[in-house]
Amino acid sequence: ADGTIAWNVLDARGLVLSTWVGTDAVPTTDYNSDSVLDVGDFRYWLSQNPTATTGPAGTSMFLVSAAIYDYGNDGGDGLVTESRQYFDSGVNDYYATEYYYDWRNRLVEMTGPDPDGQGQLASAVTSYAYDNLDRMIEETDPLEHVTTYAYDDLGRQYRITQPDPDGEGDLQSPVTNYFYDPVGRLASLVDPVGNTTSWVYDGLGRMIEETNELDDTRYFEYDDAGNLIQETDRNGRATQYGYDALGRIVEEDWLDSQENVIWTISHAYDSAGRLESVGDDAAEYEYTYDDAGRVLTEMQTIAGLAPVMVFASQYDGDGNRTQLAAAIGENDDFVTDYYYDYLDRLDRIEQYGVQGGNAVAEKRVDLTYTLAGQFDTITRYKDLDGGSGNLVMTGTYGYDLAGRLTGLAYTDPLSATLRGFGWSYDAASRIIGHDSDIASEDVAANGYGYDATNQLTSADYTDANRDDESFAYDENGNRTEANGQTYGVPGAANRLSTDGYY
């Protein structure tokens, strides 16, 4: 936003060590002793205070991110070995991710933030392995589930093997195989349960056919300029496209089985190539733009709805929309104003009516953020002033040290809790527990279960009056069972044959 200052602190190699933001970078002390108070004093102060997180007196600068290279050693290759995202102004108020490399500078391990500091939860660790040609051949997630990748002699990936979903159970590790034509284009794919999808190309490398396991085919046709002019779906329904001399789509026709046009969508453009209108028999949308190419007005003409609707937008110098005003026919309707902080984050929304226009209830929403850019609070009012007497509700967000949402509480004007929610996670950041002020919604700690491919397999509710849930899947991820009810074994092309009830 206007007045925003962003400073990157660089080392001798030009690598960014830290980033500071604020609206005033001029201190009240002449730190560099040049008898002038200016940003040079802030720059000098930064060089003398490398561990600071907030700027000196007179400034509004604060640290938002930092990086450590080559494990803190001099003379390295400039590899980021730790990144920090600050969520508050304390020296240790940051999410840290660490990166480890092998002797060929390949990333072999990434350690995420410790969710609870020195508590019981461990940092999530993901590791990678490579072949001698620097191709990733193995990826191990934080729960030690391994995915492997295989390549042919031309370096093309031809197989992906996912973790065995149920360990020692009946399911096998899902394997997806890829096959290529002589010029390296993907010719077919075989999914983990044996369904094959194949592709055919023309002499210019454009896809002209796609056929699934059921031998149903989609077809594609092109003009001499390479524009798609017709596609025919697996039911034989065709869609045709027309273009102007600049290659812009101007008409889309839907055809029935007798090749009669049953629906048309038309497009028009202004002299700058911007979409000026798009419409069919049901509706038409028309647009105007400012000199920066931003939409100023959108006029909607809907069949069967007599008044034309017009939406007008205004913007600030950074391109943020600051107002959206609506009119229905000759009557003004709502006006919504948008306000932003110096980091271009939306921090207030106001909506109201216009004198002589349609009645619109006044309302306002205020938003605040952590230094990491996550929601801190969202406060709703039933007027524009934002006074406590018109407060409706406040939502307050809480996060763990990995930046994951752990709590959300809605309170009324007297700070009494209206609704409250809590979440817990495993090392792979999957939700494993849910707590709320309504007992029937609660899931026990570790109450959500997953298989090795991250599919939900169970939900253990704390309410004795609510049945727990369970789910099972095949190697391709198709659900085969839910709460004891068996689904029909998916047929070819992974289509559900029955849900066990119908």
Please describe what this structure looks like:
The protein has a domain of about 80 residues: Lipocalin. It is built from one helix and 37 strands. The strands form two sheets. It has a 32-stranded antiparallel beta sheet, with no helix packed on it. The chain has a five-stranded antiparallel beta sheet with strand order 33-34-35-36-37, with no helix packed on it. Strand 19 and strand 20 form a beta hairpin.
Helix and strand topology:
Elements: E1 5-10, E2 16-22, H1 39-48, E3 62-69, E4 80-86, E5 94-101, E6 107-111, E7 125-130, E8 136-140, E9 146-151, E10 157-161, E11 175-180, E12 186-190, E13 196-201, E14 207-211, E15 217-222, E16 228-232, E17 238-243, E18 249-255, E19 261-269, E20 275-279, E21 283-289, E22 295-302, E23 309-315, E24 321-328, E25 331-340, E26 346-352, E27 363-369, E28 375-381, E29 391-399, E30 405-411, E31 417-425, E32 431-436, E33 443-450, E34 456-461, E35 469-473, E36 479-482, E37 485-486
Antiparallel strand pairs: 1-2, 2-3, 3-4, 4-5, 5-6, 6-7, 7-8, 8-9, 9-10, 10-11, 11-12, 12-13, 13-14, 14-15, 15-16, 16-17, 17-18, 18-19, 19-20, 20-21, 21-22, 22-23, 23-24, 24-25, 25-26, 26-27, 27-28, 28-29, 29-30, 30-31, 31-32, 33-34, 34-35, 35-36, 36-37
Oligomer: single chain
Q: Please state the CA-atom Rg, rounded to the nearest Å.
A: 29 Å
Please state the second-level CATH architecture of the domain at 280-361: Beta Barrel
* Structural class label: mainly beta
